[in-house]
Amino acid sequence: MVHVGSHETDRPAKEHANTAGSTLIEVAEVNAGYDNQRERTRLIALRDISLKVTQGEFLAIVGPSGCGKTTLINMIAGFVKPLSGVVKVRGVPVDGPGADRAMVFQDYALLPWRTVERNVEFAIENRRGHVPKPERRARIANALQLVGLAGFEKSYPHELSGGMRQRVGIARALVGEPEILLMDEPFGAVDAMTREAMQAELEKIIAETRQTVVFITHSIDEAITLGDRIVVVSSRPGTIREIIDIDLPRPRFDERNDIKRSARFGEIRSHLWKLLSDEALGAKWGSVARQEGETA
Ligand SMILES: Nc1ncnc2c1ncn2[C@@H]1O[C@H](COP(=O)(O)OP(=O)(O)OP(=O)(O)O)[C@@H](O)[C@H]1O
Ligand SMILES: [Mg+2]
């Protein structure tokens, strides 16, 4: 655990998630990658990843493109299996997707033949512990309201903008009220103003529901404003470069919105910039090394 600077003053209002509560997600000594059957090569995406996420924690993940962030979150979701090591939720090895985890995908993953409300309903229709129809309706309406899509219930995905599609994905993840929210660049396709409004909304929802969130982003500011901790992943093969505690008070979105102007915010931001620009340069050199014959 690395602390940036020595400030210990601005403790969060919420008890710090890293020291309170129990471990909900554990990634232990995980290597991950993909086999190319045709060329008989194996691409190593992640190397030796060990990480614990505490119940109620908001964990942000940043790192250069292609470093394995989506691979990591897909392993927690149960869509991808590690090559070695183990991912556990509540101490039980993950063996596929489950209703306790919901994913907001980087590429939306909507069903094009279904309307907005039917896409959201998808998350709760085939559940054990059947949700009765009237309650389903209310929950769908509530989720769409939260992401600002009320009035678009009957629209089809092709009739929406990229940002609106992404918001359908978020509503779909929220509607099932999962214990764990897995979000892969969920605000990547929305404009800056909407993005900030949605960040604030997400912070509010999480404060209420106490959901645990794993959140991938390319935005340093977003990681700092939302995260309890930030995991910095190195360029591929991704390793954990550093884990940074974000000791800023909550709520971080207030009327005056002065968190971003605080000295501590600036300090963390410059530290992250430095780390990530090192990694971006590393990625360039890495691609040269790969041409020189990298395999597994
Ligand atoms: N299904 C797959 N089959 C083969 N290789 C894959 C597959 N998915 C990802 N990869 C490779 O694994 C590496 C990590 O990919 P991943 O999608 O996890 O990166 P990322 O950090 O999410 O990148 P980005 O920030 O661009 O979304 C990349 O080199 C990618 O080419
Ligand atoms: Mg990705």
From TrEMBL:
Q: What keywords are assigned to this protein? A: ATP-binding, Nucleotide-binding, Transport
Q: Which domain of life is it from?
A: Bacteria
Cite the residue spans of the region called Disordered.
1-20
* Pfam families associated with the record: ABC_tran (PF00005)
Provide the ABC transporter domain boundaries.
Answer: 25-256
Positions with biased composition (Basic and acidic residues): 1-17
InterPro entries associated with the record: AAA+_ATPase, ABC_transporter-like_ATP-bd, ABC_transporter-like_CS, ABC_transporter_ATP-bind, P-loop_NTPase
Q: Listed GO molecular functions?
A: ATP binding; ATP hydrolysis activity
Database matches in SMART domains: AAA
Know the name of this protein? NitT/TauT family transport system ATP-binding protein
Q: Which organism is it from?
A: Nonomuraea jiangxiensis
